């Protein structure tokens, strides 16, 4: 699935939202001109829609697939074990996971048995959403941490003492580093309930395309909403012999954004610099992208105008100008040395493909100038090459200020 821009629903102006050209032109949205990779399997449509409404082009490649609950023998076996050996404590981590667990048990004909043992146990809820799911099932939680942190849940359990107690932990595909190990070391018997287990996707083509696009710097950002998805993408890149190239891109040109610190763990293990929002939700993740990507865009005062270079477009005085890939390659080469003459031979090397004809530079340059709508932004220097017509005063301020 590949999302495209929806230009009919702008979501507020970004930097330089006014326009000098067409007075009817739409304001530039925060993510106009940027391409964002989405690795999520669950809620991918929701995340894609949030990004598109803010102008992004979305490349979706689910790095995982969810094992259907009704077919999951491990979940069925864990549930039957709990029905036979009633737990003292049940830790519920996610609302969708808890609801899915109860629904699956009902489908297997043991729903009433599960609710009975849950009602007899001390139920701890990680956050308000799962607390609501517990109450909707006719149960009552004993405690829920204000921080929504599993670390706080672990601290409470250890402080109360767990030696000899049986603890059921509803998992949701996310790793919980040290959680189970700490409980077992303190004497607890831990039964993990693997709700919504994830496996690699059956069709790896979209994942391979996303890896290729990341390596080629065709993406401006990649988003992760689960640690298993991050680990799966890294594993696939390693199997294709592209792990080093992928990590090089994620450590440099391609912004890496995770929904939270647990999701970030596989990437942090490879020293990938990343960002995640203060609130671990899709909305704040998108808002973080809306702040980070425009801030990373290079802006130049050129020929009396402000030129902002985004991933696949340029903003000229607040007006969005889509630019073909060849034109963007030339513009980036010129912007690396603003105001200086860049020889045709160097620009030819910057063009995508393997053309050796300098006429290709002239053709791409003509299309670039047409896309910019202001030909004077790029000057031709006869027999030498081209230069970005950066305002002299701005260059002087940059190097002497």
Biggest β-sheet strands, sense, barrel: 4 strands, parallel
Q: Tell the overall outline.
A: elongated
Helix share bin: 40-55%
Number of domains: 3
Give the overall average pLDDT.
87
CATH domain topology of the largest domain:
Rossmann fold
- Name of the CATH architecture of the largest domain: 3-Layer(aba) Sandwich
So what's the CATH class of the largest domain? Alpha Beta
Note down, in words, how this protein is organized:
The chain has helices at 44-53, 73-84, 95-107, 111-120, 128-136, 150-160, 179-185, 205-215, 227-239, 243-250, 261-268, 282-296, 325-335, 344-350, 359-372, 392-400; strands at 35-38, 57-60, 65-66, 89-92, 122-125, 166-171, 189-194, 198-199, 221-224, 255-258, 298-302, 305-309, 313-316, 319-322, 342-343, 378-381, 385-388. It has 401 residues and is an alpha/beta fold. The chain has 3 domains: 35-65 and 201-296, 3-Layer(aba) Sandwich (Rossmann fold), CATH 3.40.50.10090; 69-196, Rossmann fold (3-Layer(aba) Sandwich), CATH 3.40.50; 298-400, Winged helix-like DNA-binding domain superfamily/Winged helix DNA-binding domain (Arc Repressor Mutant, subunit A). A 4-stranded parallel beta sheet has the order 2-1-9-10, sandwiched between helices. A 4-stranded parallel beta sheet has the order 5-4-6-7, sandwiched between helices. It has a 4-stranded antiparallel beta sheet with strand order 11-12-13-14, with helices on one face. The two termini are 48 Å apart.
């Amino acid at each position: 699935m590949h999302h495209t821009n929806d230009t009919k629903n702008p979501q507020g102006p970004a930097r330089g939202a006014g326009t000098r050209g067409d007075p009817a032109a739409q304001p530039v949205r925060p993510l106009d001109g940027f391409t964002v990779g989405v690795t999520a399997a669950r809620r991918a449509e929701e995340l894609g829609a949030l990004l598109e409404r803010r102008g992004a082009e979305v490349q979706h490649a689910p790095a995982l697939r969810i094992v259907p609950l009704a077919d999951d023998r491990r979940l069925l076996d864990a549930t039957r074990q709990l029905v036979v050996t009633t737990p003292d404590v049940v830790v519920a981590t996610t609302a969708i996971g808890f609801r899915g667990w109860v629904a699956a048990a009902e489908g297997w004909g043991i729903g009433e048995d599960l609710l009975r043992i849950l009602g007899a146990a001390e139920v701890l809820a990680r956050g308000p959403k799962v607390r609501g799911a517990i109450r909707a099932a006719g149960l009552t939680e004993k405690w829920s941490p204000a921080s929504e942190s599993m670390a706080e849940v672990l601290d409470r359990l250890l402080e109360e003492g767990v030696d000899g107690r049986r603890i059921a932990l509803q998992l949701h595909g996310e790793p919980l580093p040290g959680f189970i190990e700490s409980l077992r070391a303190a004497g607890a018997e831990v039964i993990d309930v693997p709700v919504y287990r994830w496996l690699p996707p059956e069709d790896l083509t979209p994942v391979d395309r996303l890896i290729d696009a990341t390596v080629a710097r065709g993406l401006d950002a990649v988003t992760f909403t689960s640690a298993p998805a991050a680990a799966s993408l890294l594993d696939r890149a390693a199997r294709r012999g592209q792990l080093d190239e992928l990590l090089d891109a994620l450590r440099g040109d391609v912004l890496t954004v995770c929904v939270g610190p647990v999701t970030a763990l596989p990437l942090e293990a490879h020293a990938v610099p990343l960002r995640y929002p203060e609130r671990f939700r899709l909305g704040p993740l998108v808002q973080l992208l809306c702040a980070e990507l425009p801030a990373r865009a290079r802006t130049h005062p050129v020929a009396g105008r402000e030129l902002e270079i985004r991933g696949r477009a340029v903003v000229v005085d607040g007006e969005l100008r889509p630019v073909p890939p060849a034109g963007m390659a030339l513009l980036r080469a010129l912007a690396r040395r603003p105001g200086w003459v860049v020889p045709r031979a160097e620009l030819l090397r910057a063009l995508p493909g393997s053309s050796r004809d300098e006429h290709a530079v002239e053709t791409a340059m003509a299309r670039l100038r047409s896309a910019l709508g202001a030909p004077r932004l790029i000057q031709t220097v006869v027999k030498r090459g081209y230069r970005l017509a950066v305002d002299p005063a701005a260059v002087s301020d940059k190097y002497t200020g």
